[in-house]
Amino acid sequence: MSEQELIQEILNGKTDLFAQIVDENQMNVVNLCYKLCGNRLDIDEVTQQVFVELYQALPRFRNESKLSTFIYRITVNVVSKMLSREKRIVTEDDSLRFERISEERNIEEDIIHNERITQLQNAIQKLKEDQRTALVLYTFEEKSYNEIAESMGWSLAKVESLIFRAKNNLRKMLVK
Amino acid sequence: MKYTDTELEKTLNELGKATYAGEVDVVDKVMNRLKEAENKEKFSIQKERKVRWTIGTMSLAAASVALLLFIGNSSSSQAQNENDGMAKFISEIYNRQSQADVVYYTPDYIDILLGIEGMDENI
Description:
The complex is a heterodimer of chains A (176) and B (123). With 176 residues, chain A is an all-alpha fold. Chain A has helices at residues 3-11, 18-37, 43-57, 67-84, 92-97, 107-126, 129-140, 145-152, 156-173. Chain A is globular and about 55 Å long. Chain B is mostly helical. The A-B interface holds A 15-16, 18-19, 22-23, 26-27, 30-31, 33-35, 43-44, 47-48, 51-52, 55, 94, 97-99, 101, 113, 116-117, 120-121, 139-140, 142, 167, 170-172, 174-176 and B 1-5, 7-8, 11-22, 24-27, 29-31, 33-34, 37-38.
């Protein structure tokens, strides 16, 4: 069954098929959530919320873009919304579960590195929504300018401009 | 000191490579939440229908009562008006009778005043 047919079946009332969408996309959502908020939110809770909002938004999904892109957009919005509520749910276990990017780093370097990453995550949240979406899709999801333009219904020039402005704004916000 | 382009790219790349190491499986939780939401929606629709039905019935009953009261009221006022008119008419006749010559105001004349002139003749 194609993605389009699957969505149509769900919209026709076979809601149980939605489990397939959740199963196939949950790790992508988890990783994106982690990139966007680190351990500042309960990843499990954010991921659930993303799929609940996806289910509600499914009737609005136009098959012009891939479902994964649609999910990314919802994820970016959900994370942003939850972070703005300053919900901080971190457990000791959660913080221990995060992978170290480089095992060669010593503890001091790790702390500095983590601070930089947190600072960057905070700065990304402060970007305007369109800039944040374009940056996330380009940098984290490795989408090309063309793919972003197609999936978001933007012109190529707009995508270039949004990413340029996003990086520029990040640089202004970040300090060493 | 602000970040340079290279430093920003480096941090962005590092963040881009980061992956969540924990196990996450939200399939059952999501499906349960959707079912709960669906049941709540059904319940709220049923509740709304019940409330609407109650309000509708009460409105209908109130409207019926109001209509009955209106009809009753207008009938009684009509009857009252008719009674008042007749009483006034009769009292006027008796007033005239008392003021004038008794012989002149015979029952026949009263019949004439009441508009039943010549009934006896027809009979």
